[in-house]
Specification:
With 356 residues, the protein is of the alpha/beta class. The protein has three domains: 32-111, OB fold (Dihydrolipoamide Acetyltransferase, E2P); 117-279, P-loop containing nucleotide triphosphate hydrolases (Rossmann fold, 3-Layer(aba) Sandwich); 293-355, Ribonucleotide Reductase Protein R1, domain 1, CATH 1.10.40.50. It has ten helices and 13 strands. The chain has helices spanning 32-38, 148-161, 179-193, 208-219, 234-241, 252-257, 293-298, 301-307, 324-330, 336-355, and strands spanning 57-65, 68-73, 78-82, 95-100, 105-111, 117-121, 126-131, 135-141, 165-170, 199-201, 222-227, 266-270, 275-279. The chain has a five-stranded mixed beta barrel with strand order 1-2-3-5-4. It has a two-stranded antiparallel ribbon with strand order 6-7. The longest helix has 20 residues, at 336-355. The termini are far apart. The structure holds guanosine-5'-triphosphate, magnesium ion and zinc ion. Zinc ion binds at residues 307, 310, 315, 317, 320, 323-325.
Length: 356
């Protein structure tokens, strides 16, 4: 059987049922050695070798191309995997059991219990984003300007999923001569993160060695997901950590003016020192209607904490008297931006509930 290269088929398939696509703009050269090291299945593999022998293999989902997925087995071989029913619902980072149905295709038999799972909703439904993450890295930059709302939504999703979040503020070179602007950004990030999250101030292009050293230290022996709006430097960061990844990066103006994102699929890359990093397309929206009201309040422990001190147990923190939340915002102990986002998300939940 011909063994495929390491092309994960980043191009869109014409038919979801055909084999992994051969054409790709993003050719990943993952040494099988690295994949082997990175893929530590908890389920033992009974056999390996002949894929037509009806045996089961353990594999890690390493790429998502919309409706189809690529998984890598412990030998470093890539499979295009398909599931039926619930088994169709896999995410990059999942550990799965597969049985080969062709030289490069396999059925998903089981999805191993996840440590965590990050979701993202669009207008129609919730989507699985990535699973079994040790950390999410949100990449922000001064240019193009980052959206505080998307930052808040990412914080909320990670808090809900129980995944630690770290922020990279990139393109520091563009704001060196504007200390006031930088101060404003520092205040904004402190406000959103409540001073509780690591924030790394980097310039990936001006000081790449420093950035690489710091981020290698943060990401070694971890599975991480890199999130951020288009043009922030997600792929640039991954290329720095894993030169073999050779990801396409693009001039911001090109990427934004064409309305296209440079990265179009979610894909895991394997580096030295146990780095397993997932690149993702830039997001412009981050729906959270998969959370219910309780989830939402739990994701805002600051608001929840002050809320316990309101006079009325069911205080909505609007016009009620003796509202500890309103008082805390007035006194600068609680972030008004966070409270506004909480209300916006609550309103979205109510709207989504009325629609279905
Ligand atoms: N000035 C400056 N430019 C940078 C820096 N880091 C990255 N860039 C540039 O920003 C542009 C966008 O970088 P990408 O890595 O493609 O951004 P991305 O977040 O992967 O974008 P999408 O794939 O569209 O989501 C490229 O032209 C990079 O060269 C930096 O530290 N300073
Ligand atoms: Mg990219
Ligand atoms: Zn209140």
């Amino acid at each position: 059987m011909a063994k495929r290269g390491n092309n994960l088929g980043a191009g869109k398939p014409k038919h979801a049922s055909t084999g992994p696509t051969q054409s790709s703009n993003h050719v990943e050269k993952t040494p099988s050695q690295k994949a082997k090291e990175a893929n530590r299945p908890e389920t033992p593999i009974s056999q390996s070798g002949n894929p037509a022998g009806g045996q089961k293999l353990s594999a890690r989902v390493v790429a998502s191309h919309g409706r189809h997925f690529v998984a890598t087995d412990t030998e470093g071989k890539h499979w295009q995997v398909f599931g039926k029913g619930k088994r169709r619902e896999v995410a990059v980072g999942d550990v799965i059991q597969i049985s080969p149905s062709g030289p490069e295709q396999a059925w998903i038999d089981a999805i191993q219990e996840r440590k965590n799972l990050l979701y993202r909703s669009d207008a129609l439904r919730s989507k699985l984003f990535a699973a079994n993450l040790d950390v999410v890295i949100l990449v922000l930059a001064a240019s193009p300007p980052y959206s505080p709302e998307l930052l808040g939504r990412t914080l909320t999703a990670c808090e809900n999923a129980g995944i630690p979040l770290e922020i990279v503020f990139n393109k520091l070179d563009l704001v060196h001569d504007d200390p006031e602007f930088l101060e404003h950004i520092r205040d904004d990030l402190d406000d959103w993160t409540m001073g509780e999250m690591p924030i790394h101030w980097l310039s990936l292009t001006e000081a790449p060695e420093d950035a690489c050293e710091l981020m290698t230290d943060r990401l070694k022996n971890k599975t991480s997901l890199i999130l951020g709006q288009s043009g922030m430097g997600k792929s640039t960061l991954i290329n720095l950590l894993i030169p073999d990844a050779k990801l396409a990066t693009n001039e911001v103006s090109l990427a934004l003016n064409s309305g296209k994102h440079t990265t179009t699929n979610t894909q895991m890359h394997f580096g030295d020192e146990g780095i397993q990093v997932i690149d993702s397309p830039g997001f412009q929206a981050f729906g959270l209607h998969h959370l219910n009201e309780k989830d939402l309040l739990d994701a805002f422990p600051d608001i929840k904490g002050f809320g316990l001190r309101c006079r009325f147990d069911d205080c909505k923190h609007r016009e009620e008297p003796s509202c500890a939340v309103k008082d805390a915002i007035e006194e600068g102990e609680l972030s008004g931006s966070r409270f506004d986002l909480y209300n916006l998300l609550l309103a979205e939940l109510e709207e989504a509930r009325q629609q279905y």
